Please model this.
Amino acid sequence: MKSLLLNADYTPIQFITNIRAFLLVHKGKAEVIDMGGKLSTWDNFIRTSSAEFYFPATIRLVNRINNWWRAPRFRKSALYTRDDWTCQYCGIDLNKTLATIDHVIPRSRGGDTSWKNCVASCKYCNRKKSNKTPPEAGMPLLKLPISPKPYHVWEGTKNIKWHDDWSAFIKKDI
Ligand SMILES: [Zn+2]
Model:
């Protein structure tokens, strides 16, 4: 089981091990999130000579860390999450069958595969846009592509045991 580490302003940072989360709290560097009267913990606990401590599920740093985030290498899955699994041209909901990556400036015209030149697109819009730019195709983007934020790039929430409290801060991988 993992713990979700939040920055002091409640933005998600990453998953860490239970033990590391426990130690951060123990050293006073982080606090367990209070979910409206109930602490965000797992059911497992460790026993010390004097007390029992439940493993934290969600913790928050006491002091904010700045500038820790650098956009990661381009990844399809994070791009879909960034675009909320929505076609950035027609707005329909995407699934794995419908979703494609569209190069805003087409590759054939020198567009690169990057966070700022790629968007999630349904395969129909992708085909229709072909090797045109959005103005040429008459297909404006719903929003400008940006570098992903940390919460777009969760590594494998699919593969770890999910804690319901996390839904308040991050989205579960599809
Ligand atoms: Zn579309």
